[in-house]
C-alpha cells in the first residue's frame, strides 16, 4: 500500500529535497504551503510535472493555526509527518521573537496535540537544530550535551524538542527528533550566510555588486549538504522505534574559510587586511576589495562554535554525509555563478526561482 507523508515547510530548502526523496521512494506527498501574496513555491514547482503530479499535493495551512492543522491531518491521515516548518533564520528571530516562538516552538505542539486527539498512528519527525546548543558547554556536541541556546530561534527549537519527547513518553506517539547541524545547498535562502557568500561573490566577480558585506568571519560551523541530511531525516522515521538522533559532518569550518573556498572556485584569491570591523578581503589578482565587515550583521548574542558527533546515527541508521565541505562550496559557487551570468545578460538582478531547482 502506498505510504502518505505530510511535510510542513515543504517550500523550504529541506522540505523540497525531502519531497523529491519521498516521491522517488513511491510515497504520496502532501505539503503544507503557507499563504503568501508573492510566490513562495519556487523550490517545488518542478514537482508538479507529469512524473510527479499525481503524487505531489500542496495544501494551504499554517503552523500558527490549530484549526488548519487538525483539518489537514484529518483529511490526509498521513503515515508519516515531517515537521520542517519554522521561522528558521536565527538573526531574524531577534527581530520577531514572539512570532518565532509561536511558529517554531508552539507549531510543533499544535501538530502533536492534533495527532493525540485524532488518535492518528502516524510517525512524527521534529526538525531540531544545533542552535539549541548555543554557547556550547562541551565540544563536540552529542545527544548528552546540555542545551544553552543564545537566540529566540534556538530556545523555540529547544521547546519543540522537549515537547516531542514528552508526547512520545506520555502518550506513546511515535515521535522522533533529528538535531541537524548546518546544512546548505543552492536552494538555501539568500539571506543565509552561505548563500549570501556564494551569490554575492559571483556578483562581485562579474561586476554586478561592488563588495560582499558580512558579520563575524570567525564563527565556526559544522556544514553539510541538505540532500545528504534529508536522507537521514527519512531514515530516522524508518527506525523500528522512536528515538532522537544527531546529524553532522564532524568537521567545523569558519565563515572565513567558506568565503575563501567559494572565492577559489570563482578564480578569486583572497588575502585579508586589517582587524576587527576594519578587516577587508582583497582579491590578490586584481587588488579589489571584495569583502568588507558590516557591524549590522553581528547578532546580539553570538554562537561561536558548533561541531557535532553523529556517531549514533552512523551506527544505528547507517547514515553518513557524502558531500564534503569543499564539494559543497564548489557546488554553490558554480550554481550561483550561473545566476550572476544570467543577471549580466538581463542587465539587472533577476528572479532566482528557475535557478533554484538543482
Word description of this protein:
The chain has helices spanning 13-24, 66-76, 90-95, 97-118, 152-171, 193-205, 226-238, 255-265, 311-317, 325-346, and strands spanning 4-8, 28-33, 56-60, 80-83, 123-129, 175-180, 183-184, 212-214, 220-221, 224-225, 244-247, 253-254, 270-273, 280-283, 289-293. It has two domains: 4-180, 3-Layer(aba) Sandwich (Rossmann fold), CATH 3.40.50; 193-221 and 253-303 and 324-355, UDP-galactose 4-epimerase, domain 1, CATH 3.90.25.10. A seven-stranded parallel beta sheet has the order 3-2-1-4-5-6-11, sandwiched between helices. The chain has a four-stranded mixed beta sheet with strand order 8-15-14-13. Strands 7-10 form a two-stranded parallel sheet. It is of the alpha/beta class. It catalyses: GDP-alpha-D-mannose = GDP-4-dehydro-alpha-D-rhamnose + H2O. Keywords: Lyase, NADP. This is GDP-mannose 4,6-dehydratase. Belongs to the NAD(P)-dependent epimerase/dehydratase family. GDP-mannose 4,6-dehydratase subfamily.
